[in-house]
C-alpha cells in the first residue's frame, strides 16, 4: 500500500526534472539563434534576394522527408542541437517525453510542440535582415551521403567596349626601353648621322675649300681610330655592349670611306693600294664583331659603307663594285661557326646590287662606261665569293633555305651579262656558273650543311642558268632542240633519284613544256597543210626536235604515272591525263617528222604526199600496237589502253577520210586506203583469234552431268 505514494512521488519528480531540462533546452536554443545571427553578420556578410534559391533550400537526398516550409527561412542551429527542418519554430530543441506513468496516457509530442511555443525565439517576420540572410548549413546535421551543391560561378564580366587590350604607347615605350630597343635604335641612328657628317667633311668641305685635302683626310683617319679605341674602352664597362658596337661600327665605316675618298675623289692612292687598305680596315672591323660575337656590328660595318660609298665614287661604277667585292671577300671568314644569316645577306648584296644596276642601265643604253671583260670578271667573282661564303656559313646556319636563296641570287649579274658581253661569252660565263653550282648539287650529300632543300634551290638555279645560256648562245631552232635535250637528260636522271626526284620531275616538265612550245613556233601546224620548201638546216633541226619531244614526253608520262601510283591515289586521273598528252604529242610529232623527212628527201610536193601517207600508216600501226599490248594485261588495267588505242585508230581513220582523201594525189591516195584497210583487217583477225584463245584458256569445260568424279578428271 505504501508503494503507490512512492511511485507517484517519483513520477512527479521525473516530470519536474523533465520540465527543467526542457527550459534549459529552450534557453540553449535561444542562445544558438543569437550566435547564428551574430555569425551571419560578422563572418558571412553575403546576401541574396528572395527570388534566388538558397543553399539550405536544396532538394533533400533520397529517403529523407522534409516538411513543407511556408514561412521565411530559420537559421540552422549549431552543433549539439536538433535539425531545424525536423522541429517546428519555437518548439524545444531537445524535448523528450517523460517516462510512462502507470494509469496515465502517453503525451503527444506534436501537441506538446504546438502548445509550447518559444516566445523568445527570433521571428523572421519581424526581422527583415534574417529573411534575406543566408545561413550556412551545419555539417553535423547533414544526412549520410549528402554533399552540398557547388557554389554558383560568378557571371562573366564583359570587358568594356571602350577598354583596349593593347597597352598604351607610354607603356610600350617603357617596355622597349627596358629591353634595350630604344638604346639600339638611338645607337643605329647615331652611326648613320655620324657617317653622313664624315661624308660631308670629305666632299662638301672640299667643294667649299674650307680645309686643305690633307687635313680632311687625316682628320677622318684620326676620327676613325679614336672611335674604335673608344669602343674597346666602352665595351669593358657594365652594359656597354650596345654603345661599343655603335662606336666601333662608326669608326670602321669612317676609315673605309676615308680610303675610298682618297682613292676616288683625291686620286692619291692607286686602286690596288686602296683595295688592300680597305680589306685591312673591313677585316679588322669584322674581326672585332667576331670577337664580341656581335652580328649587329658586322651589319653596321657593311650597310653604311654600301649606302654611302656611291656618294664618294661619283655614282655606281666598276670601282665601287671592286670595293664592295673586297668587303664581301674580307668578311667571309667571320661567319665560320656563326649563325649570321643577315650579315651574309648584306655582304652579298653589296656587290650584287651595283652589278645588276650597271647591267640594267647598259641594257637601256645609259649605263657607265664599263668594259665587258671587267664586268664579266666582277660578275664571276661575285658568284665565287657567294658560293664560298655559303659553304662556310651553311654548317652553322639555322636558315639554310634562306641562305641558299641568297646564294642563288648572286648569279643575277651573270644572267644579265648579255647586256655588256657578246652572246657567246655571256653563254660561256653562265654555263660555267651553272656547272659550278651543279657540282655542288651533285656533291651535296657529302658537303656539311648542304641539305636536300638547299640542293633543290640550287638545282632550280642551275635549270634557270641553263635555260638562259641556251637561249643566249643558240637560235634558229637549235635552242629548242637543246632545251628538249636537257629536259630529256633531267627526266632520265630523275628516274634513278630518290631525294631529288620531285624537283627534278618539275624541272624536266618545265623544260619539255618550253621545248614543246618552241617546236610549235618553229614548225607550226599550218605548215602540215600545204607543201612547201624547207631549208635543210631547219629540217634537220625539226627532225631532232620531234624525236626528242616524243622521247621526253614518254619518259615524263611514265614518271608521273609511277609517282601517282606511289601516292596510292584511288582514281586514274593522272594516268588518263598523261596518256592523252602523250597521244596528242606523239601524233603531232610523228606527222611533223614524216612530212619534214619526206620533203627533205623527195622534194616539196612528192615528199609532202609521201610524208602524210607514212603518217597515216604510222598512226594506224601505233593504235594497233596499243590494242595488242592492252590485250595482254589484266582486265582491270587494260581499259585505259583499250580506250587510247581505239582513239588513235579513230584519229587515223578521220585523217584518212577528212585530209588524205582531199589532199593526197594519185597513187599516194590509193596506197593510203589500201594499206590502212589491210591493217584494219589484220587487227580485226588478230584480235578475234586472241579473244577466242583467251576464252578457251579461261573458261573450263564441264564434264557430263552423270559422269563420276574420276571420269571428269580423265576428261
UniProtKB/TrEMBL annotation:
Q: Where is the composition biased (Pro residues)?
A: 136-161
- The UniProt regions of compositional bias labelled Low complexity, in chain numbering, are 45-57, 104-131
Q: Does the keyword Transferase apply?
A: no
Positions of the UniProt region annotated as Disordered: 45-168
Organism phylogeny? Bacteria, Bacillati, Actinomycetota, Actinomycetes, Mycobacteriales
* Residue ranges of the TM segments: 182-205, 217-235, 242-262, 268-288, 295-312, 348-366, 372-394, 401-420, 426-445, 503-524, 536-557, 577-602, 608-628, 640-658, 670-688
Q: Which UniProt keywords apply?
A: Membrane, Transmembrane, Transmembrane helix
Report the protein name in the record: DUF2339 domain-containing protein
Species this protein is from: Gordonia aquimaris
Do the record's keywords include Transmembrane helix?
A: yes
Amino acid at each position: 500500500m505504501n508503494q503507490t505514494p512512492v511511485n507517484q512521488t517519483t513520477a512527479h519528480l521525473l516530470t519536474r526534472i523533465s520540465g527543467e531540462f526542457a527550459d534549459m533546452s529552450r534557453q540553449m536554443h535561444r542562445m544558438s539563434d543569437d550566435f547564428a545571427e551574430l555569425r551571419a553578420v560578422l563572418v558571412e556578410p553575403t546576401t541574396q534576394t528572395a527570388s534566388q534559391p538558397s543553399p539550405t533550400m536544396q532538394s533533400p537526398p533520397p529517403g529523407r522527408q522534409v516538411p513543407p516550409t511556408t514561412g521565411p527561412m530559420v537559421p540552422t542551429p549549431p552543433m549539439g542541437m536538433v535539425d531545424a527542418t525536423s522541429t517546428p519554430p519555437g518548439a524545444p530543441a531537445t524535448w523528450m517525453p517523460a517516462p510512462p506513468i502507470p494509469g496515465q496516457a502517453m503525451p503527444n509530442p506534436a501537441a506538446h510542440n504546438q502548445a509550447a511555443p518559444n516566445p523568445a525565439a527570433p521571428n523572421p517576420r519581424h526581422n527583415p535582415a534574417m529573411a534575406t540572410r543566408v545561413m550556412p548549413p551545419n555539417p553535423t546535421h547533414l544526412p549520410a551521403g549528402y554533399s552540398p551543391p557547388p557554389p554558383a560561378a560568378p557571371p562573366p564580366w564583359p570587358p568594356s567596349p571602350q577598354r583596349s587590350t593593347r597597352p598604351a604607347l607610354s607603356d610600350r615605350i617603357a617596355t622597349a626601353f627596358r629591353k634595350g630597343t630604344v638604346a639600339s635604335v638611338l645607337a643605329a641612328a647615331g652611326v648613320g648621322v655620324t657617317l653622313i657628317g664624315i661624308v660631308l667633311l670629305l666632299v662638301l668641305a672640299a667643294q667649299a675649300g674650307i680645309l686643305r685635302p690633307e687635313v680632311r683626310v687625316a682628320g677622318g683617319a684620326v676620327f676613325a681610330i679614336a672611335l674604335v679605341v673608344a669602343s674597346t674602352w666602352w665595351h669593358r664597362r657594365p652594359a656597354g655592349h650596345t654603345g661599343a658596337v655603335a662606336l666601333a661600327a662608326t669608326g670602321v665605316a669612317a676609315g673605309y670611306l676615308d680610303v675610298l675618298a682618297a682613292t676616288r675623289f683625291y686620286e692619291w692612292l692607286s686602286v690596288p693600294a686602296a683595295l688592300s687598305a680597305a680589306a685591312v680596315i673591313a677585316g679588322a672591323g669584322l674581326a672585332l664583331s667576331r670577337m664580341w660575337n656581335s652580328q649587329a656590328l658586322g651589319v653596321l660595318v657593311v650597310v653604311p659603307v654600301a649606302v654611302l660609298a656611291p656618294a664618294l665614287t661619283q655614282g655606281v661604277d666598276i670601282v665601287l663594285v671592286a670595293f664592295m667585292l673586297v668587303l664581301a671577300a674580307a668578311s667571309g671568314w667571320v661567319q665560320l661557326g656563326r649563325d649570321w644569316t643577315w650579315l651574309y645577306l648584306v655582304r652579298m648584296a653589296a656587290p650584287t646590287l651595283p652589278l645588276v644596276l650597271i647591267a640594267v642601265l647598259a641594257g637601256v643604253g645609259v649605263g657607265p662606261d664599263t668594259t665587258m671583260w671587267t664586268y664579266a670578271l666582277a660578275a664571276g667573282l661575285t658568284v665565287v665569293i657567294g658560293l664560298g661564303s655559303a659553304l662556310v656559313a651553311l654548317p652553322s646556319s639555322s636558315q639554310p633555305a634562306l641562305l641558299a636563296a641568297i646564294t642563288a641570287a648572286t648569279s643575277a649579274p651573270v644572267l644579265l651579262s648579255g647586256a655588256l658581253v657578246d652572246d657567246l661569252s655571256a653563254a660561256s660565263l653562265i654555263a660555267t656558273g651553272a656547272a659550278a653550282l651543279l657540282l655542288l648539287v651533285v656533291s651535296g650529300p657529302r658537303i656539311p650543311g648542304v641539305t636536300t632543300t638547299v640542293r633543290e634551290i640550287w638545282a632550280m638555279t642551275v635549270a634557270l642558268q641553263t635555260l638562259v645560256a641556251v637561249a643566249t648562245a643558240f637560235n634558229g631552232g637549235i635552242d629548242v632542240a637543246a632545251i628538249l635535250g636537257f629536259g630529256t637528260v633531267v627526266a632520265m636522271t630523275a628516274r634513278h633519284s630518290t631525294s631529288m626526284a620531285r624537283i627534278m620531275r618539275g624541272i624536266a616538265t618545265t623544260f619539255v613544256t618550253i621545248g614543246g612550245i618552241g617546236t610549235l613556233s618553229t614548225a607550226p601546224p599550218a605548215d602540215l597543210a600545204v607543201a612547201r620548201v624547207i631549208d635543210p638546216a631547219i629540217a634537220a633541226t625539226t627532225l631532232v626536235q620531234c624525236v626528242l619531244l616524243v622521247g621526253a614526253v614518254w619518259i615524263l608520262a611514265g614518271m608521273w604515272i609511277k609517282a601517282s601510283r606511289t601516292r596510292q591515289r584511288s582514281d586514274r586521273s593522272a594516268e588518263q591525263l598523261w596518256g592523252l598528252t602523250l597521244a596528242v604529242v606523239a601524233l603531232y610529232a610523228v606527222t611533223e617528222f614524216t612530212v619534214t623527212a619526206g620533203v627533205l628527201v623527195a622534194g616539196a610536193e612528192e615528199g609532202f604526199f609521201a610524208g602524210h601517207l607514212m603518217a597515216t600508216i604510222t598512226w594506224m600501226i601505233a593504235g594497233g600496237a596499243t590494242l595488242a599490248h592492252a590485250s595482254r594485261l589484266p582486265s582491270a588495267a587494260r581499259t585505259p589502253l583499250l580506250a587510247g588505242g581505239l582513239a588513235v585508230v579513230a584519229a587515223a581513220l578521220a585523217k584518212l577520210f577528212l585530209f588524205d582523201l582531199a589532199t593526197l594525189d594519185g597513187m599516194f591516195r590509193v596506197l593510203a586506203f589500201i594499206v590502212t584497210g589491210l591493217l584494219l583487217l589484220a587487227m580485226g583477225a588478230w584480235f578475234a583469234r586472241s579473244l577466242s584463245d583467251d576464252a578457251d584458256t579461261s573458261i573450263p569445260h564441264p564434264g557430263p552431268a552423270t559422269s563420276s568424279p574420276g571420269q571428269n578428271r580423265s576428261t
